Amino acid sequence: MYYIEQLVKADGIYSQNHKHLIHKIHKEYETKDLLQAKKELERSLFVEKYKTGIISGVAFFILIASLVVYFQQKKKAKKVAQELIRKIESIQKQIVESSEELKIIPKTNNINDETVLKILEKLTGFEQKQKFLKPDVTLEKLANDFGTNTSYLSSVINSHKSQKFNDYINSLRINYVINELVTNSSTDFFRYSMDGIAQHSGFVNGIAFSRAFQKHAGVKPSVFIKELSERQHLKSA
Description:
This protein is 76% helix and 0% strand. It has helices spanning 2-94, 113-128, 139-146, 150-160, 165-183, 194-199, 206-217, 221-236.
């Protein structure tokens, strides 16, 4: 009986120590796991913060570069518009009505001088009557109106206007718009959209007008009109 009681007592002590040991082991392992997880979390946060910093820096650099390019282009366009306006105003001061006869260059691609002169006279009337503002002007229709063929008409325009037919027509239209804007401060063109101006100057739409204007004048029509409006406002102030 004595030995049994001692055995039970020893077993109780062992069980108690065993439980304490298990609890200690579990606690130590849990602590190690938490510390490892904390390190990994800190490392992850640092990497994300570093990436965010790089991305923010690159985005800021792109933004600054874009703004610099934008303002440089805007400044350049404004300068081109100002120079164009000065040239137009200078030319207008030098315009003098003249009744000189047309001077022709003989032998324009084997076309006789008389035919060349007639075509040039027809072109002068075409320009003065502003028939180029019609949207359906074509080389074929104009040649038919002039009583000649497309080959002769195209050749005379190339030789005496130094342009292909489409460029010739577009330049007449753009010059008309520019002249209207510069000489008539009350023109409706200042109120019209690009499509509106296009409709009143023979172009099919605002995009075609804007492209032709920039090609001919070297500046967007919106920039030119804005600069011209500012100049007129300063003059009237």
